[in-house]
Amino acid sequence: MTILNLGIPKGSLQDATIELFEQAGWRISSYSRNYFPDIDDPDIRCSLVRAQEMARYVADGTLDLGLTGLDWILETEAEVEQISTLTYSKTSNRPSRWVLVVPNASPIQRVEDLQGRKIATELVGFTRRYLAERGIEAEVEFSWGATEAKAVEGLVDAVVEITETGSTIRAHGLRIVEDLLITETRLIANPSAMQDAEKRARIDQIALMLRAALTARHKVALKCNVPAHQLDEIVGMLPSLHAPTVSYLYDREWLAVETIVDADAVRDLIPRMRAAGAEGILEYALRKMV
Ligand SMILES: Nc1ncnc2c1ncn2[C@@H]1O[C@H](COP(=O)(O)OP(=O)(O)OP(=O)(O)O)[C@@H](O)[C@H]1O
Ligand SMILES: O=P(O)(O)OC[C@H]1O[C@H](OP(=O)(O)OP(=O)(O)O)[C@H](O)[C@@H]1O
Ligand SMILES: [Mg+2]
Predict the structure, then answer these.
(1) Cα–Cα distance for residue pair 117/113, rounded to 1 Å
(2) Are 163 and 96 in contact (CB under 8 A)?
(3) How much distance in Å is there from the Cα of 161 to the middle of ligand 3?
(4) Of the residues 23, 54, 254, 271, which has the maximum number of CB atoms within 10 A of its CB?
(5) The ATP phosphoribosyltransferase catalytic domain covers which part of the protein (predicted)?
(6) 3-state class of 94 per DSSP?
């Protein structure tokens, strides 16, 4: 039996990743102070690895498969195969942004204004390359964290930081000058593992199920009963993958209509369906969608 070595990102993405695996069909139990969580699949061995180091360990074959942000894949320039983009962050199912931020009162208005200035960031290599490509010479120093504070205290002229909800930037009275990178979580694999038929089959299975779980988070199932004379009008309101499923109730004057819609659309859709004569309207959460 071939064992697949899987890296789970320790830190910001840890809880969200374990939750996604649970929804996808694998239960991972992590214990404090143990970097090898249990997983209910005998063919997989899990390790907790820092997101910053994940791509390096996947590239050198220590891990066959791992999850980390696009930011750290680009920063380390590691040679990994990107299997899938999985759009989830620490607290949301949206991408995060690496942004150039300055204090509100700073004279810096554009990235070009950084010429000759000092910048702090955790993403040093990426930031240096970004500035070099634009012909800007600036000093980029590594920050171990709490980076926003360095702009407030005047230790540096600007910082390059990740933002998800924007609350840290707001709390420090900072202003975004420019977006440098939109980053999302990526499922990455070792190129030789992808050449191994057994490992590749497991990787494809995991990729499919993780994507199925994430897609389902943005969709819901809607079901309702519709009087026959209102069927066309109500079906016309409903977007669906193909067409809604329609079946007769025992009383042939009524039909049951079932469909999948964007979760965001439901608050507008249900009142319109009701006004058009739909009854017994139900919304179901979905666990997976392929
Ligand atoms: N809100 C967020 N804040 C920070 N990183 C996030 C966020 N959402 C997603 N990420 C991703 O998480 C990864 C960083 O994870 P990691 O836990 O290694 O660093 P960290 O957040 O600085 O950890 P910590 O601050 O706990 O030491 C990056 O790939 C980043 O894109
Ligand atoms: O836009 P927001 O939702 O506020 O999230 C962004 C903040 O989250 C991360 O900090 P982290 O918790 O990793 O702390 P650190 O600065 O010590 O790394 C990141 O470095 C930002 O400071
Ligand atoms: Mg951090």
Answers:
(1) 8
(2) yes
(3) 9
(4) 54
(5) 50-211
(6) coil
d(CA 62, CA 79): 13
ipTM of the complex in this document: 0.95
Angle at 106 (CA atoms; ends 105, 107), nearest 5 degrees = 115
| Phi, psi (deg, nearest 5) at residue 206 | -65, -45
Q: Does the C-beta of 87 come closer than 6 Å to ligand 2?
A: no
The distance in angstroms from the start CA to the end CA of the chain is 28
pTM score: 0.93
**Kind of pairing, strands 139-142 and 118-121?**
parallel
The two three-digit tokens of residue 221, written as one number: 């199932």
Q: 170 forms bridges with which residues in the sheet?
A: none
74-89 b/e (C-beta count within 10 Å ≥ 16 → b): bbbebebbebbebebb
Instruction: Give the tens place of pLDDT for each residue, 169-224.
Output: 999 999 999 999 999 999 999 999 999 999 999 999 999 999 999 999 999 999 99
Per the prediction, the chain carries an average pLDDT of 96
Strand-strand pairing, 174-183 and 96-103? antiparallel
Determine the distance separating the centroid of ligand 2 and the alpha carbon of 250, expressed in angstroms: 57
| Beta-ladder partners of 189 | 65, 81
